[in-house]
Amino acid sequence: MAKKKQKKAQSSSPMPLFAAGAAVVVVLVVAFLITSGSKPGQFVPEHQGDHDHLGTTTNTPPGGDPPTSGPHTDLLGPWGVNQDYMPPERWLHNLEDGGVAILYSCLDCPELVSQLAALVERHRNRDRHVLMAYWPGMTPVIALRAWTRKQDLASFDQGAIERFIIAFEGIDHHQPQR
To answer: Does some domain include residue 119?
Structure first.
């Protein structure tokens, strides 16, 4: 009789449920790591208010790490090659609409600017939503930005830039209407 009570107590133990729950968590974590690791760049979480529109205000000074999301103007920044500083409020809406920004930090680098411009024009000729702009004061020479994704490059790397564009261009990030 004591053996039956011991066996019953063992069978109603929470251990099998705990083990099954732990297995599910492990599978989900592995799946997340596999799928997120296959995309180029680094994920940067959104913040509350990142989808807010500011009308036409464009007064953010240059410098620092270019954002991957944030409040932005109602209008899109110009696609294609822009060789002047463009405030992030202008191009963040482009990212929200599925665009990719290629930002560069040097003024005395005509070869780099030419390489980036040629790459951007090739993608624009294929109707890809890509823009290029000057971003002074950042540490990397090139900063690739998509909505909530970033990749920084120390020099021109056509393969890395192409992979970033292909992975993130065309993904619309507008919040669903509630």
So the answer is: yes
Question: Could you give the angle at which helices 110-124 and 158-168 cross, rounded to 10 degrees?
Answer: 30
- Same structural domain for residues 110 and 160? yes
pLDDT band at 172 (very low <50, low <70, confident <90, very high): confident
| Choice between 119 and 18, residue whose per-residue pLDDT is larger | 119
Kindly state whether residues 74 and 124 are assigned to the same domain.
yes
Please enumerate in sequence order all residues whose Cβ is within 8 A of that of 113, keeping only pairs 6 or more positions apart, or say none: 83, 104
CB 123 within 8 A of CB 79: no
Q: How many domains does the chain have?
A: 2
Decide if 81 is inside a domain. Answer: yes
- The whole-angstrom separation of Cα 8 and Cα 139 is 65
Give the mean model confidence (pLDDT) for residues 40-63: 72
Structure tokens at 76: 């899109």
The single residue listed with the structure tokens 């997340």 is 32
Amino acid at 91: W
Measured CA distances, 167 to 41, 146, 170 (Å): 10, 10, 9
Q: Is residue 175 part of a domain?
A: no
